[in-house]
Design a protein that fits this description.
Number of helices: 11
Structural class: alpha+beta
Strand content: 35-45%
Number of strands: 67
Low-confidence stretches: 1-25, 781-800, 919-924
Strand order of the largest sheet: 61-67-66-63-64
């Protein structure tokens, strides 16, 4: 499935994804083949059952596809599958080259069905109508009803390949020798041939009825039309390929699978034809032009090919769209860092390569970058802020600019070093119309009327850190400041900055504050890169902490905003949430919903029409939220597809599993079985990597567990008891799948435990008796030899320490070089001790006496050297400085800078400049 997911993640980034008509041939396909588990790459039939599984009949075997895994049924090995039909919630009938079989989906059993008067015959087609199963074979037509099989009076010289029943109850069948009509009421039988002289033109594969016409797919005559009232044949049209293997009809369009020319889509209104064909240069096209089977299901094209597997297109729900200006700009190609949508519809879109100004009403489109303007010194646009009918443009390391939309000109904000060489992440303005800037050198406050500037840093105020990523003025005119080391609050009344803002006993330990927001009720939302999201009320008396344990799909909370209906939208590193803070209900969106990439940037805005916009790594994303979020939910079932106990897959019909997993309500564990695994599917045929599920085992889990991009759940050390497992799509709007897990008690275990306790207590008793006896002997006798040996033993112990220190030193160095544990920011002395199997105290002694350092500095030297190596490779251009330092084992930007300066006597930027590694440092 990795290949499948990779291909579709790529197609998500193509400009044609929004929107795609389900009947447009310009679709993007992914392929399932033998590499993904199929028994054969030639697909003769595709069938979707009432539960939602896709069943595949291949040239050599019978398979089931649940959107994630392919299930192979070994009883059909070495059989060619021609047709599949469902007659009830349990039975699935399968026609093969050897005859007819029926699968009980509940028990998993497969039964071979004998046809009367026939030893062996191929079953080419099945039709279920009015409680009767019609069986088309090489030896005529059979019927199955009430567990009784009968042969009809239809005599054929060639095999029967397809069947329809018209509105009057008459049968029409295709065969290898023409079209057969049969009236079951008076047993009237007729055969119609397209050509009376050329038998090869009468070989028919399939048929479909549209009003009073029957469309027939033939072996050598293309599509034929049989007019029922006149009982005559008409040659439909020349498709360039006369071999038609399958036909489907939907919304006045005919879908014809050809043997070599792809899928033809024919409009019955104007006779226009479009094609879906194989293109070896298109990785998202179908894999072959030989279309052996086809199914159209709610906009999804399922195409079975000859020797090239199954092709299907994953349908985007198009809840979200990516902004584009036709003929000028498609932001799907851009990493959008910041933006601003004006009330007049004007847009400024900041990227990592400059910014765009767009006025659609005035037909204005301009791009500004350091390549086309001398004013802009940095192309990384961190922030955009409206100010006096103009816009402030904040960059990384390139200062602050003013953009005038009337004259479409860009100029420097102020000719002062504080504004020309700084990085500007965010802006806000207070009730006194002062402008506050969040920068990488603290907070700057500017009074535009007087020109007075105040700069707040960690050295001259209570600011926790000089790296300020977000800044907000709330409704009480307080300035919230988000830094790399937490959040601070500037009180305009007493002109002080404080960091003790959270209620007593509530300490979320937030770091790397990326976004601050106040909703309509006054609540403040604090987005942290390291520890999730905090909601705190206006009076600072109560707060809530949201992480991946209770709400978020990832602890990296990027931005929040309130929509027109009071719902809070939360962007994270692994998806987007619409959250009802009153009820706690939420809905989570992923790539399948139209989000082009899971990673967002902090810029977010609701425009005057209520549309919500986000800066995404793959474009400027927007949606118009509905009042009722339940329209997002499709209410698709979750089914259990496999059960594992002790690592082995369990077959149905055992004491552990009575029926197949999707029909099972209870899993039984014996007393000596203590681990269980469950595989499941949501049957949505989307992108597994972006799907997020939740599960909870009553009696074991107190909260819901997140499962991201996976479809397996496992529990170990299961104690005896009766448990209930809940599985659902992330959020509370989807239906749950529930299954019970029952583990028996082990009375033998209690007996063994009792015997063991008795043995232990007996041993302790006799051991204490021996200790008392030895103690009495020591009081009576003193060994003079021991006294003489004391000094000698101490000397030899000292010698052993010296030899052992060399062994410890070598083991420690080898461990650091071989395992690279320093890349783990949580590495502790205890971890190294466990790895090299020496006590912590001895390792510390060796580090102190032999290497003249301590464990922390010892590890940090490795991390600094790792950074230097990566910086001198292409990594410096692929990652931000912060991201690169984290890959080397540092847990924050501030600690990285501190350690680097301590060890090298240089800052990282000084090192990069001295080493001439790139002219522009990467964005932090």
């Amino acid at each position: 499935m990795r290949k499948v997911l990779f291909l579709f993640l790529l197609l998500m980034f193509s400009e044609n994804l929004f929107p795609v008509s389900p009947f447009c041939p310009d679709l993007h396909f992914t392929t399932i083949n033998m590499d993904n588990g199929l028994s054969n790459n030639t697909i003769n039939v595709i069938y979707k059952d009432s539960v939602g599984f896709i069943w595949l009949g291949t040239q050599n075997g019978f398979n089931r596809f649940d959107g994630i895994n392919v299930e192979v049924y070994p009883d059909f090995n070495n059989e060619t599958i021609y047709t599949i039909c469902e007659t009830d919630s349990d039975r699935l009938w399968v026609g093969t080259n050897f005859g007819l079989k029926v699968l009980s989906r509940k028990s998993g059993s497969i039964q071979t069905i004998e046809l009367p008067g026939v030893n062996s015959t191929a079953v080419r087609a099945l039709k279920f109508h009015n409680d009767t199963l019609y069986i088309c074979t090489n030896h005529g037509l059979f019927t199955q009803k009430d567990n009784s099989i009968k042969k009809t009076g239809i005599n054929v010289t060639g095999h029967l390949t397809g069947m329809i029943i018209d509105s009057e109850g008459n049968y029409w069948l295709t065969s290898g020798d023409g079209l057969i009509y049969y009236d079951p009421h008076n047993r009237k039988y007729e055969k119609y041939r397209y050509s009376s002289t050329n038998n090869i033109l009468n070989k028919f594969h399939c048929l479909i009825q549209v009003e009073s016409k029957i469309y027939i797919g033939s072996e050598n005559a293309g599509i034929l039309v049989f007019d029922i009232p006149s009982k005559t044949f008409i040659r439909f049209m020349d498709l360039g390929n006369n071999c038609i293997l399958n036909l489907n009809f939907y919304q006045n369009k005919l879908y014809a699978g050809t043997n070599g020319s792809g899928l033809k889509i024919i409009s019955l209104e104007d006779q226009s034809v479009s094609s879906i064909t194989h293109d070896p240069n298109n990785p998202y096209g179908i894999s072959s032009n030989a279309i052996y089977s086809f199914l159209l299901d709610n906009g999804t094209f399922w195409i079975g090919t000859f020797f090239s597997g199954l092709n299907y297109n994953i349908i985007s729900k198009n809840i979200f769209q990516v902004y584009s200006l036709p003929g000028k700009l498609n932001t799907l190609d851009l990493n959008v860092r910041s933006f601003r949508i004006g009330d007049d519809g004007r847009k400024i879109i900041g990227t990592r390569n400059g910014f765009f100004f767009i006025s659609e009403k005035e037909a204005v489109f301009r791009n500004f970058s350091s390549e086309n303007t001398d004013v802009l010194k940095s192309n990384i646009i961190l922030s955009v802020f409206p100010w006096n009918d103009q816009f402030l443009i904040g960059t990384y390391s390139g200062g602050l600019y003013i953009f005038n939309p009337q004259t479409i000109t860009l100029s420097e904000f102020r000719d002062e070093q504080l504004f020309t060489n700084n990085s500007f992440y965010s802006f806000t303005s207070d009730k006194d119309k002062q402008i506050w800037f969040g920068t990488l050198s603290g907070v700057i406050c500017l009074d535009p009327n007087t020109g007075k500037i105040e700069q707040y840093t960690s050295s001259n105020s209570g600011l926790t850190d000089n790296l300020v990523y977000s800044i907000l003025c709330d409704s009480d005119n307080r300035i919230w400041i988000g830094t790399a080391e937490g959040v601070c609050l500037y009180d305009n009344k007493n002109k002080t900055i404080r960091k003790d803002i959270f209620p007593t006993g509530f300490n979320p330990n937030l770091k790397m504050i990326r976004h601050l927001y106040q909703d309509s009720s006054g609540d403040i939302w604090i987005c942290s890169e390291k520890n999730g999201l905090v909601q705190i009320n206006k009076s600072l008396s109560a707060g809530k902490h949201y992480t991946d344990k209770n709400l978020l799909p990832d602890i990296f909370a990027i931005s929040t905003i309130e929509d027109s209906f009071g719902y809070i939208w939360i962007s994270t590193a692994k998806g987007l949430i619409r959250f009802d803070k009153q009820t706690g209900n939420y809905f989570l969106f992923s790539l399948t919903d139209g989000i082009p990439a899971p990673m967002f940037n902090h810029s977010v805005q609701k425009d005057e029409k209520g549309t919500v916009w986000w800066a995404n790594e793959k474009g400027l994303l927007y949606t118009m939220p509905p009042e009722n979020p339940e329209i997002y939910s499709e209410k698709k079932p979750i089914v259990i597809t496999a059960v594992y106990i002790g690592g082995k897959r369990i077959k149905p019909g055992t004491s552990s599993l009575q029926y197949v997993p999707e029909f099972t309500s209870v899993i039984n564990l014996e007393s000596d079985q203590d681990n269980v695994g469950i595989r499941f599917s949501g049957l949505d045929f989307g992108i597994l990597k972006s799907e997020i599920y939740e599960y909870k085992l009553d009696g074991r889990d107190s909260t819901w567990n997140k499962l991201i991009g996976q479809n397996q759940i496992s529990y170990t050390d299961v104690k005896p008891g009766n448990y209930k497992l809940h599985i659902r799509k992330a959020g509370s709007l989807e239906p749950e799948k529930n299954i019970r897990i029952f583990k028996k008690k082990s009375y033998a275990a209690y007996f063994r435990t009792g015997i063991f306790i008795i043995i232990i207590l007996t041993g302790i008793y006799f051991y204490r008796i021996q200790l008392i006896q030895l103690s009495n002997l020591k009081k009576k006798f003193v060994d003079p030899v021991k006294k003489r040996m004391d000094h000698s033993e101490k000397y030899q112990n000292s010698k052993l320490v010296e030899e052992e220190s060399i062994l410890i030193r070598n083991a420690l160095l080898e461990y650091m070089e071989r395992e690279q544990p320093y890349l783990n920011p949580k590495l502790k002395l205890a971890d190294a001790s466990a790895a090299i199997k020496y006590p912590q105290a001895k390792i510390s002694q060796v580090l102190n006496q032999n290497l003249k350092t301590n464990f922390t500095d010892f590890v940090n030297k490795y991390r600094v050297n790792e950074f230097k190596k990566k910086a001198q490779s292409d990594s410096i251009h692929q990652y931000t400085l912060t991201a690169l330092s984290e890959k080397c084992g540092f847990n924050s930007r501030s600690s990285f800078f501190h350690v680097f300066k301590k060890i090298t006597s240089q800052t990282p930027l000084e090192f990069l400049k001295e080493s001439e590694i790139g002219r522009t440092p990467p964005f932090q």
